[in-house]
Design a protein that fits this description.
Structural class: alpha/beta
Largest sheet: 5 strands, mixed
CATH architecture of the largest domain: 3-Layer(aba) Sandwich
CATH superfamily of the largest domain: Periplasmic binding protein-like II
Oligomer: single chain
Shape: globular
Strand order of the largest sheet: 4-5-1-6-12
Distance between the termini: 35 Å
CATH class of the largest domain: Alpha Beta
Number of strands: 12
Number of domains: 2
CATH topology of the largest domain: D-Maltodextrin-Binding Protein, domain 2
Length: about 475
Amino acid sequence: MKKKLFSLVMVVAAVGLLGSCSGNTSSSTNATDGGKVLNIECWNTEFEGRFRHYCKDMLSNATEDDPLYANSTATDKKWAVPDADGNFTMKDGTKVVFKITDNKNNGYQNALDVDLFNQDQAEADNKVDMFMVEADYALKYVKSNSTCDVIKDIGLTEADMADQYQYTKDIVKDASGNIKGTTWQACPGLYAYRRDIAKDVLGSDDPATVQAALADWTKFNSVAASAKAKGYYMVSGYDDAYRPFSNNVSAPWVDANKKIVVDQKIKDWISQTKTFSEKGYNHGTSLWNSDWTADQTMAGKVFGFFYSTWGINFTLKDNAGDAGFGKWAVCQGPASYYWGGSWISAAKGTDNKSQIAKIMKRMTCDKATLKQITLDTLDYTNNKSAMNEIAADKTYGAAFLGGQNHIALFAKAAETINMSNISAYDQGLNEGLQEAMKDYFLGTISEDKAWENFYKAIAVKYPSLSH
C-alpha cells in the first residue's frame, strides 16, 4: 500500500530519470539474462491470450481448447493452461507471470509507473521484464530511460522487423532513433455497418456503394439525416466518431512549450457531435457502456460504428453475437484513421532478455505466426507481405462480414497512417475531452463551461501543462 502514496507527478518524473538498458549504468541495472521469473504487465488479457496460443510450444504447461477460437476457422484451437497460481512456465524453467491492471482513469499507467520507479530496488524475481503500451501514451515510455532498445539491447535485428509497417516502428522511436518496442498488430480504422440498415437507407449493402455514399463528412451527415427519417441512428453515441477526427489533426495536442493546442479537427468533432445530439442522429450512449454494447446487437437501430482492427474482431463480433454473423460489412468511411494498438516493451533492468527476444520475434516478426493470427481471428497483423497475401486471396472472406475480404480494405488504410502528431499526453487529453463535453452534448451546460471543466480536470492529471 505504501507504494501507492507516490504522487503521479513524482512517479512520472522518476521514470524519466531511470538508467537505460545500454547506457552508462551499473551492471545490476542493465538488461541481463537468466532470471527465474518473467514479469509481464498489461491492462487486459489480449496479449496473454495471444501468448498462450501462439507461444504454447515454448511452454511446459498442458493445453486445452481455447474458447475464443470456438467459432473461428483456426486449424489449431489449443492454448496453454495456467498453473494453480495462474502462471505459465517456459521450457527452460522460467516462470511467466502476468500482472493485469485496468486502464480506466490512467490506472494501468499509474501502477506501471510505480513499479518502474522501484525497479532498481526490487528483488530480481519481482522486477518488471516486459510491459505493454498503447499508441496514446507510448511516447511517455519511449522518451524515458525505462525502456530498452529492442535491437541493441534485446537482440532483434532490422531484418527481423523489415516487414513491419513503418508507423509501428516510428511510434516507438526515441529522439536518437532507438526502437523501444514492437507490436504484432497494425490498427487502421474503418466504418463497420449493418447490411440490413444500409439496404433500407441506401438501397444497397454493397461496400463500394456504401462507401460512395459516405465518402466525406458532408455525405456522411446527409446519410445520417436519411437514416433518422427511417428510424435509425447513424452512430451510437457521443464518442463514436472521435477517432476519425482526432487522428487527422494538424499538430500534436501539446506543443514544445507544454501548452495544450486544440486543433480544428477537435472543434469539428465537437460541432458535429452537438448537431447529431440535437437532431437525434446518435443514440446518446458512451463508449463501452451497456447501451452502446446493446446497439451492436441485431436489436439495435444503429447504422454503423467506427472501429479499427481489434474493434471488429473482438468487440463488435462479440457484441453482435451469433445472430450478427454475416449481417455486417465494412467500408473506409469519410476519413482515414487509426485507433489504438498494443506495443511490447522490455523494461530497463530485466534479467530475462533472451526469453523476451524469443517472444518478441515470434509474436511480432514471424510471418507465419502473424498470418495465422489474422486467419484465425480477423485481426490485422504487423506484417506487410502476409497481409498483402490475404488481401489478394480471392478465396478469403470473413464469415462475420458476410464473406467480405476486410483485410484488403485494411491493407489500403494501413499505408496512410501517420503518427507524426501524437503526444505523450494523448490518452488523458482524449479521454478528458470526451468526458468533459458530454454535459454540453446533453444540453445541461454551455460549451464554455465544458472547456472550463476540461482544463480543470487536465490541471489535476497533468499539472505541468498550460493552455
